[in-house]
Amino acid sequence: MRWFKFSIIFLLLILGVYTASMYIFVKKNSTIKVERDINYGIDKVYPQFNNLQKFSRWNSFFSESKTFFTEYYQPYEGNGSSMSFSDDSHSGELQISYENPLRTLKYQLYQDKNATPTNITVKFLPVSTEKTKIIWTVFTPEKSVLERYSNLWSDSDFVEIVDKSMTNLKTVLSNKIDKEELLKDIKFDSLMVENLNEQLLLGVNVTTSNKSDALYKNILLNYSKVTNFITNDLNKKEDEFGFPVLITTATNFKDKELSYYLGFPLSKKVTITDNNFNFKEIKASKAFTIYYKGNYANRVRAIQTLLQKAKSESLDYSEMQQVFLETPTADRDVLMKFSLPLR
């Protein structure tokens, strides 16, 4: 009996110390502010925030869970747009409650059965035409004494979410804007010198016949195969990977049988369990480049132009990179960039 009384007194003492600590040292709600810069203009950055379908794809709060289910409601962007979400651990709703275009957005985040939302304000400050400062401010709802302990680590949790999200956003914008810039000022059949960045490709190794249009049919087949794997199995969106790259020996376009690697650039390696697919790393290099539009079978002239240029300058070269700038189809000319990396 004495031990029981002692236990009760001890528990009451601990509860009293906890309650006093929460009242004295931990605020009933908190305000968290995080500032980050991103090297893209506000006209590129802002649409990724005021459209919740885009926002949820790179924001790590939503994108890191493989079981996340989301549903979007009209209007799909701007003030009044909203979405619901759920996974194995929690559910809730997110809505845009205020918008000052290109300047400020206010979100309300309802989690689980909480009737009081977490209020998030995001401000956008143009530093230059190619740089934007993003200021995140979070106002957490008031919590009871028993729940207030969670405010002890909410700051670091939010900073981690912001940092991961900003990394994802940079990847999305890089892929999207690199594609836009590449297509902006194409000059066909003009040989150029270009610095190629290093790339990480995910794709397939293939050996096939080079007779008639058999090669192109095989490329279309494997293009669909790799695209389906990346978008369906890996759940990647279009702006999360780059233009597909076909890599071949530079001089094998006359061979009866041709081997190639076809892959899409990704920002980082991911776990894959299908042995049909593999990663290939391409080193940064200087290259002779030429743009081509026409029937794929007639691409040989563009390739020969690059090879002749390298030969005339006595330069050694590595494997040819053939980049599809438009989705290849059976009934349409291809739009491509051919690059011959120089060693």
TrEMBL record:
<keyword id="KW-0472">Membrane</keyword>
<keyword id="KW-0812">Transmembrane</keyword>
<protein>
    <submittedName>
        <fullName>Effector-binding domain-containing protein</fullName>
    </submittedName>
</protein>
<keyword id="KW-1133">Transmembrane helix</keyword>
<dbReference type="InterPro" id="IPR011256">
    <property type="entry name" value="Reg_factor_effector_dom_sf"/>
</dbReference>
<feature type="transmembrane region" description="Helical">
    <location>
        <begin position="6"/>
        <end position="26"/>
    </location>
</feature>
